[in-house]
Design a protein that fits this description.
four-stranded antiparallel β-sheet, OXTCase_su_AllG_h-dom, 2 domains, Enterococcus faecalis V583 fold, AllG-like, globular, 14 helices, DUF1116 domain-containing protein, alpha+beta
């Protein structure tokens, strides 16, 4: 074969023979579309050739570009602190909302059940675990996904009647979204803890922190969260597992008004320290509410294949797709590829959970891991270079790059925005999500952090449902 060159298409085993025999070659990392599944290849072909307008332009691409433009135009502004019963229609003391797609009490994982027990104690509906369990089993408690109420919450995502919520308005379109206030570290309800210290902290958030923050926000006239997220990306945050810069940038924005709002307040020092010093993940819940307010504006666009939500309840992973409305596509959650805290291992981990993957729908979090070198080891990635590769690969499944959120470590390229289920299925690349890992037993708390993806099965089922709706 002297004088011949070889192009190798995606079969790595051939490379050794070429190298051994010193044959010049070029290796192309190629895979057949949709992993070679002929049914899916046919669907993708028909979507590309049949769903076109009179000029031959793709109806799906036009719809996805509309979604991209709307998401990029969104301006999420934190306006108020409101209580759940004030903003969720029809909410009563016996209403509780949770992270992820719908799930029955009997099917919930340990941390989720533990959080429900804690919420009932917090609301004064039960004094003991046994009383709370009986109440859940009685059918008296109404519960369902946060996403049905324009809300999001991390991990278990508990939202009950008395809980204070961040109110974020997308000023471009006028819609609002809500999230709880991050509880901080230690024993917390989002990981299923429900002891006395957990309930006391929740009451402190409700009765001490929330009124002071609300007063400060009213005085500020609102805080643009997109501006904070953009700046935080340049400072090493990705807004899912690392919020150090974003939390401090938020405090800088509110510090003057918060100082005035807490004058003469015996809890002033505790309030300021909770926001500025003792809770590096404070901004996470704000990022979630901001991205929820943005993503909700692209729901129900005909022909649009962009994801509007990714969410997990600790048992099932669910997604929503723009043109398919509120229909959930679900499959069992995966366990994260994680770095565990000392004394814990994968055997202790609960499958993935939380509404927090809404931030990846906006291109931050794991999608922008290349912006956050300091988070790499924390989530178990092998190197900063690997984080760059993750972020670069996410461009292949996105509608475009959002240059309003540039990544300095990657030549200021924008984050990948608008996850397209067609591209996910065609390439076999799944959205990368940075996530915390909860212990499978209620109340133990966080045992690690890592990287996870949705199951491919839900992308495939969503694509087939889309095809069934739009292909004749």
């Amino acid at each position: 074969m002297s004088g011949q060159n070889v192009i190798n298409l995606g079969v790595d085993s051939f490379l050794h023979a070429f190298e051994k025999n010193e044959i010049p070659h070029v290796n192309l990392d190629w895979k057949p579309p949709a992993q070679g599944d002929t049914e899916l290849i046919n669907i993708l072909f028909r979507l590309a050739t049949e769903l076109v307008d009179e000029k031959g332009d793709s109806l799906i691409d036009k719809a996805n570009n509309e979604a991209f433009d709307k998401m990029r135009a969104g301006q999420p502004v934190l306006k108020r602190i409101r209580y759940a019963h004030e903003v969720i229609p029809g909410m009563t003391k016996k209403s509780i909302y949770h992270a992820g797609p719908p799930i029955a009490w009997e099917e919930m994982c340990g941390p989720m059940q533990g959080a429900f027990i804690g919420a009932l104690k917090y609301e004064g509906l039960a004094k003991t675990d046994d009383e709370a369990i009986k109440l859940m089993q009685s059918g008296e408690i109404t519960y369902g996904p946060n996403h049905y109420n324009q809300c999001v919450g991390p991990m278990t995502g508990m939202i009950s009647y008395s809980m204070p919520l961040f109110e974020v308005e997308n000023e471009t379109y006028g819609n609002k979204a809500y999230s709880t206030i991050n509880e901080g570290i230690g024993k917390v309800m989002r990981f299923g803890a429900n002891g006395t210290e957990v309930i006391e902290r929740l009451h402190w958030l409700e009765k001490v922190l929330a009124p002071a923050l609300d007063k400060a926000l009213i005085a500020s006239g609102g805080i643009n969260l997109k501006n904070i997220m953009s700046q935080a990306l340049t400072m090493g945050d990705e807004m899912h597992q690392r919020n150090v810069a974003a939390s401090l940038l938020f405090y800088r924005q509110i510090s003057g008004e918060l100082t005035e709002a807490t004058q003469g307040n015996e809890h002033a020092k505790d309030i300021v320290e909770f926001v500025a010093k003792k809770n590096e993940q404070f901004f996470l819940n704000l990022a979630m509410a901001a991205t929820k307010a943005i993503a909700d504006t692209v729901r129900d666009i005909p022909y649009c294949t962009v994801l509007t939500a990714m969410s997990r309840n600790g048992v099932n992973f669910g997604i929503n797709v723009s043109s398919l409305g509120k229909e959930w596509f679900e499959a069992p959650c995966l366990k994260p590829n994680a770095l565990y805290f000392p004394g814990y291992s994968e055997a202790d981990a609960n499958p993935d959970m939380g509404d927090s993957a809404i931030v990846e729908c906006y291109g931050i979090g794991g999608m922008a891991m290349g912006a956050a070198p300091a988070v790499v080891r924390f989530v178990g990635a092998e190197s900063v270079y690997e984080a760059f590769k993750y972020t670069e690969s996410m461009r292949e499944i996105a509608t475009g790059l959002n240059n309003d959120l540039p990544i300095p470590t990657m030549d200021f390229a924008g984050v990948a925005l608008g996850i397209d289920i067609r591209k996910v299925v065609a390439t076999g690349l799944l959205p990368i999500i940075n996530t915390g890992v909860a212990h499978k037993m209620a109340g133990v708390g966080q045992v690690g952090a890592g990287i996870v993806t949705p199951p491919m099965a839900i992308m495939v089922s969503a694509l087939k449902a889309f095809a069934a709706r739009y292909l004749k």
